[in-house]
Automatic annotation (TrEMBL), chain A:
Its main location: membrane. It is a multi-pass membrane protein. It comes from the Bacteria. NQR complex catalyzes the reduction of ubiquinone-1 to ubiquinol by two successive reactions, coupled with the transport of Na(+) ions from the cytoplasm to the periplasm. NqrA to NqrE are probably involved in the second step, the conversion of ubisemiquinone to ubiquinol. It comes from Brumimicrobium aurantiacum. GO terms for cellular component: plasma membrane. This is Na(+)-translocating NADH-quinone reductase subunit B. HAMAP family: NqrB. GO terms for biological process: respiratory electron transport chain; sodium ion transport; transmembrane transport. The lineage of its organism: Bacteria, Pseudomonadati, Bacteroidota, Flavobacteriia, Flavobacteriales. Its EC number is 7.2.1.1. The chain crosses the membrane at residues 57-74, 106-131, 138-154, 185-203, 275-302, 309-331, 337-355, 391-411. The gene is nqrB. Belongs to the NqrB/RnfD family. The keyword Transmembrane applies.
UniProtKB/TrEMBL annotation, chain B:
PANTHER family: INTEGRAL MEMBRANE PROTEIN OF SOXR-REDUCING COMPLEX, NA(+)-TRANSLOCATING NADH-QUINONE REDUCTASE SUBUNIT E. The gene is nqrE. This is Na(+)-translocating NADH-quinone reductase subunit E. Composed of six subunits; NqrA, NqrB, NqrC, NqrD, NqrE and NqrF. It is found in: Cell membrane; Endomembrane system. The chain crosses the membrane at residues 12-31, 37-59, 86-105, 117-139, 151-172, 184-208. The keyword Cell membrane applies. InterPro entries: NqrDE/RnfAE (IPR003667), NqrDE/RnfAE_oxidrdctase (IPR050133), NqrE (IPR010967). HAMAP family: NqrE (MF_00429).
Amino acid sequence: MKALKKVIQNLDPKFEKGGKWEKMYPLYETLSTFLFTPKHVTKKGAHIRDGVDLKRTMFMVVIAMIPALLFGIYNTGHWHYELQSYLNPEQYGAYSDYLTGFGDKVVYGLFQVLPLVIVSYGVGLAIEFIFGFVRGHGLHEGFLVSGMLIPLIMPADVPLWMVGVATAFAVVIGKEVFGGTGMNIVNIALTARAFLFFAYPTAMSGDKVWKSGTTDVIAANDGILPDGASGATALGDLASFVGDAPVVAGETIAENASSAELIQKFEGAYDPLHAIIGMIPGSVGETSMIAILLGAGLLLYTGVASWRIILSFFAGGFVFGLLMNLIGANAYMDLPAYYHLIIGGFAFGAVFMATDPVTASQTQYGKLWYGFLGGGLAVLIRVLNPAYPEGVMLAILFMNIMAPLIDHYVVQANISRRKKRFKTA
Amino acid sequence: MESTLDIFVKAIFTENMIFAYFLGMCSYLAVSKTVKTGVGLGLAVIFVLVVTVPMNYLLENYVLKEGALTWLNPEYGLSGSKTIDLSFLSFIMFIAVVASIVQLVEMLVEKFAPTLYGALGIFLPLIAVNCSILGGALFMQDRQYSTILDATSFAFGSGIGWFIAIVSLAAIREKIRYSNVPPALRGLGITFIVTGLMGIAFMSFMGVEYGKKKDSKTNTISGGAVETSQIINDIKQ
């Protein structure tokens, strides 16, 4: 370690202003601060400097996402082989069990998920470097987190070029035009996902993308899914409750079934325990509540994420879920409120997306409002908008653009309250 | 038929004047530098819409529409022998009504409510030429609301939607005021990009089904996402 530090220190003058490789400074700065704390010192005034800079803060978030990533790799493989077991019962029949073929599942998942991570980081960092050179600033650290978030919120089967295009769009339009890390107004990863969601809806929604290899299975089975198999997510099934042909896990249910029957079927197919562990199909990293809460624990312990946002986001979702129960106009509205929190990307959004310190509200009261309304809106979109089964992404995007307004009014309220205090005193 | 409340909510979110139809963009972009002026302009738009749309509704239904002049003489009605159709006049009549009402209201407000006048200030006359106001009148004509209450709730909803849009844009612009935006994009350029990103966020309301109807009566933009994906599926097959 000491030797490495010496090498870097010796290289230092060459990259300084007037040095031989002055132009390469952003690259050098990035790599050196990745290994050691930055060498900047405070020049004026009394400041306490901490070794935890932006890069380390961001890295903490990446570490917090690792459980979700690991589980996502296994889950991708599991659902791939689960689908294969319908097509090929002799060979893969036992694979629908969770632990059978664990190694195969992990290997398959690795081959599906790692390319997503590599493409996302590759494209994003390349663009960051270009902007860094052209605009003369170091590499912005913010992409460390975005680059990991993007693969985790994609379906495992999404074509790699789409990930690349979406990442490029999000980094350039979502972030760099605003001046880079810390200046963006909407979450980068969500911008990437929303871009794909609206530009290529068939690759991002429906019932053919959530289990890896679904299209191959369909092709091998004369254009339809094998009997009993299903490619939909829990949310996709729920969205069908509102329409004419309710479906639960591939089984079509009579249209006139009562909502209690539907809910019972749904609970049978996606029982809460499996949903919390994450044994349900979905985007790569979003399924496992346990893995996400592990990450949340680390983020809260290190103080990177705001407990106010996470707590109020869950509270908002739960309260609006209860509200829907009260209205109870259709089977979807009758779904027990806690279900909203454990299926789909709700927990993932609450922990990793809504807490983005740049795009969330900055004020303490504002954070409570931001989280509560975000969680509530997510449930509202899920239940009321059949076009979008998953509402979390759009709810957080919506709250991102509302956050500055919330902050503005929190600050204004604070000012007027203090003015009043001044007058009465 | 959609209920009055449905029309109201739809006008705010799904058919937002800014993000669904891009109406009233000029003042939306020009007057959104600070939240305070944004609020002023937004209030003025709500106010003018709520006043002029019902007024134009009456004009449309009792003067301009084909056969609307039955109350003068049954012969002018749809089933009469001399049916009169004045709808070719609607553009000029609507804009004249908007302009004159705004002037009238401005005088009245100045006389009787100086504080409100001070708050709305220059925005009131400015609004007379805002596209969203004429747009509101024309949408009202196009959608043929059945009662004046529906038309008013549409106007109020559209106004609130416009208000939300401009105020949130103003807050964002205040926030990014000191951002290191590339020189070429400073000012309007970045504002357009922000508007686009806000438009993506507002997409969350597209496709919400109002009322209980299921026979996809929702035309134009609402339900766009479902329909597009269906069309894509059809093409693929």
